[in-house]
Amino acid sequence: MKHNRVLPLLTPFIVFTLFELFFFNPKIVYVALVFANLLIFFTITRFTKESDASKDWWNFLILPALFTTGLAAYSVLFANNFIVQLLFVFNLVFLYFYLKIIYYYLIRVKSYKNLSLENISSYGNFLAFFFVSSVVYGLQSFLNMPVWPLMVIMAAVAALMIHQMVWANMIEEKFALVYVLIGSLVLVELAWSLSFLPLNFNAAGLILAICYYMLTGLVRHHLSDNLKKRTVKLYLSLGLGSILLILLTTRWM
């Protein structure tokens, strides 16, 4: 128990150190990522075993693993060292808050604040999806990779993130499985369509992430029996308005 208390602070700093090592020695990027994810896995499993929730360890792992891996891959696309360092610090802060919330959620239940896990999952998944989708379009732009294997990656990531959203909001999986499949299919279709547009990888990734946020938000409210016309109008107006603003202001390739 005493060791578990320091893990939410210790783990992010070790991951940050690993990222700094691959920043100065890019050849060890894969080694750093493997050890970072193993460390996150170790921390999550310690928490779940302490609370007798060992069967759910992979549900808690999806978000931090995809967020950390996506951010690391996204940082490789930048030549600006300052931006890269900001991303590493941002990952440190996110991991700290996420692991702290998980620690309270599983172990110190009385100190847990309601909806903390749901909120960080919602915003964290949006950012993680942005990182991954931007990397996918970056690989297409810089390495001229074929589209179909990248779409396979997008399908897997979309399915995992939608599942994590469903699980974090405590929606029964038997009702949500079809939405996971349909949602990931819709996002892959959108991702494939965006790949034909001459957009900057950041713009394409952000547009797809906004589509993901609108889709999962509407699905979450629907499965919670809380979907109203006002909610639909809010998601669609903000989402489509943001996409239009990006298309009007971005620099086309």
What does this structure look like?
With 253 residues, the protein is mostly helical. The protein has 9 helices and no strands. Helix 1 runs antiparallel to helix 2 and helix 3 runs antiparallel to helix 4. The longest helix has 28 residues. It is globular, with a radius of gyration of 18 Å. The termini are far apart. The mean pLDDT is 90.
Brief descriptors of the model:
single chain; 253 residues; mainly alpha; globular
Order of helices and strands: HHHHHHHHH
> Structural class per helix/strand content?
mainly alpha
Distance between the termini: 54 Å
Radius of gyration: 18 Å
Which regions contain 5 or more consecutive residues with pLDDT less than 50?
none
Tell me the number of strands.
0
What is the oligomer described by this structure?
A: single chain
Strand content: under 5%
Main β sheet profile:
none
- Principal-axis shape equals globular
- Average of pLDDT: 90
The helix count comes to 9
Compile the SSE list and pairings.
Blueprint: H1 2-24, H2 29-50, H3 57-76, H4 81-106, H5 116-143, H6 147-168, H7 173-194, H8 201-223, H9 229-249
Can you summarize this structure?
The protein is mostly helical and 253 residues long. It is 82% helix and 0% strand.
